[in-house]
Structure formats: C-alpha cells, structure tokens
Amino acid sequence: MSSEPPCQLDAALRIRLLLVDDEPDFKEVMLKHLSRKGIRLSVAECCLDALDLLDTTPADVIIMDMNMPGMDGIQCLRQVKERWPLTEVIILTGHASVQSGIEGMQGGAFDYCLKPIDVRELLEKVELAAQKALINQEDAGSA
Predict the structure, then answer these.
(1) Cα–Cα distance between 141 and 92 in angstroms, integer?
(2) CA-based end-to-end distance of the chain
(3) pTM value?
C-alpha cells in the first residue's frame, strides 16, 4: 500500500481531455481511472479520428500515444499545435523510445510519460497541463 497522498485534482476537473490511443485495453483502463476521478474526456482510436473530433469537440489537454497506425504521434502533435495552439499535449511513449518523448517536447508537447503508465504520474501531469491550458485561455481572453 502506498503511503503517498492521492494526487489532488482541481484544474483537471475544469477542462476537457482527449485520450488518443489505438490499444483497446489501455483505453479502457485509462477511461475508468480518469472518469472515476471526475475528469471529462473523449476517446479517439487514432490521430485522424482525433483531428476530426477536435473540429467539433475542442479539448484543453490531449493524452496521445506516439505509435499509432496512420499518422504517428509527432505528426499529429504538429497538426494539433498548428490548429489548436492553446491545447496542451501529453505524449505516451514506450521505454525504448525516450527519444520520441524528447522529440515531442521539442515539437511543443507539454510533457511525456513512459509506458507502462504510472497512473498517479499521469494524473499529476494532466493536472499541470490543465493548469497551463486554463492560463493559456485566460491570456488569450485578455489579449
């Protein structure tokens, strides 16, 4: 049993999150964890589905796998940052591809997580990304 206190969520409860991953089991587990915490989220199978969804249902924070069929996570990240620059993106990458995480950060990602995912770590990153997304929106509104 962990002695660490649970991750406190505030900003994450006030934003819309999009999870983009092609692994059904992973999506199901993450959907349960995030929904149970009260986070409003949508799910997409791949980057092209995510881009279509974002056209109609904006997201403040996106959790996106790097390795997906069709358009990969780096290409998708570029599209997202070009079309929705205020949206924060957390990329997911395998242990063997830390370089992909670094490349994603250089391409504008907020942060990255290594798979297999530590849910607590991901929740902390979602909260921080949500805080930044809310600040982005306030700044854009006052500009």
Answers:
(1) 30
(2) 47
(3) 0.90
Residue 8: strand, helix, or coil: coil
Which domains does the chain possess? 11-142 (3.40.50.2300)
Q: How confident is the model at residue 15 (pLDDT cuts 50, 70, 90)?
A: very high
Q: Is residue 19 packed enough to be buried (19+ CB in 10 Å), middle (13-18) or exposed (0-12)?
A: buried
> Is residue 47 within 8 Å of 68, Cβ to Cβ?
yes
pLDDT score of 5: 56
Burial label, 15 (beta-carbon count in 10 A; 0-12, 13-18, 19+): buried
Instruction: Tell me whether the omega of the peptide bond preceding residue 116 falls within 30 degrees of 0, making it cis.
Output: yes
For 87-137, what is each residue's pLDDT tens digit? Answer: 999 999 876 577 777 788 888 999 999 888 899 999 999 999 999 999 988
Dump the DSSP string for 56-92.
HS--SEEEEES--SSS-HHHHHHHHHHH-TT-EEEEE
Cα–Cα distance for residue pair 116/98, rounded to 1 Å: 13
